[in-house]
Amino acid sequence: MIGMNIQGQTADTHICGICNAVPEISDLMYTSIVMGDMEKAVKYKSLLMKIKGLAREFQVEGLSIVKAILRLRGLSVGNPVPPNKGLSDNEMRKLREILESILSDAGVNIEFKRIF
User: Fold this and answer.
1) 13: helix, strand or coil
2) How far is Cα 109 from Cα 5, in angstroms, rounded to an integer?
3) Of residues 59, 55, 56, 50, the one with CA closest to residue 67
4) pLDDT at 2
5) Domain boundaries in the chain?
6) What does each C-alpha distance from 25 to 16, 62, 78, 86, 106 come to in angstroms?
7) Cα separation, 51 vs 14, whole angstroms
């Protein structure tokens, strides 16, 4: 946990691994907090939590989702180490569709690589 004090407001925070895969949304959230726009900050946090929740939907560990997103972004980070499993091509397609929708809601445009 990290303590944060912005505009006289103190909050406990944490660094979410998913933020490494989609730093654009976490940057928007941070900027919203600094600017005092908590409504937008909460919106961006909610979008990040949707992405984080995809691990449950795909029945994989969070690291598998991070690696899959990075792969979609064109970064070769290898496969998850067993016993963790990666995503199938079908799951990667579905992940891409879900991410495009979430990123659109955030106003973020990322061009994903064609990998399947």
Assistant:
1) strand
2) 30
3) 55
4) 46
5) 2-106
6) 12, 17, 24, 24, 7
7) 16
The model carries a pTM of: 0.82
User: What is d(CA 104, CA 97) in angstroms, rounded to the nearest whole number?
Assistant: 11
Q: What is the CA radius of gyration of the chain?
A: 15
- Residue matched to tokens 């979008």: 47
DSSP-derived pairing of the beta strands 2-6 and 9-13:
antiparallel
Q: Amino acid identity of 107?
A: G
| Spatial contact of 68 and 74, defined as CB atoms under 8 Å apart | no
Q: Helices in the chain by DSSP H: which ranges? A: 23-34, 38-58, 62-72, 89-106
CATH 3.20.20.70 fits 2-106, yes or no: yes
Residue with tokens 């690589």: 113
CA atoms of 116 and 97, how far apart (whole Å): 13
Query: Which range among 12-21, 76-85, 87-96 shows the weakest confidence by mean pLDDT?
Result: 12-21
AA identity, residue 10: T
- Count the alpha carbons within 13 Å of 41 in the hemisphere toward its beta carbon: 11
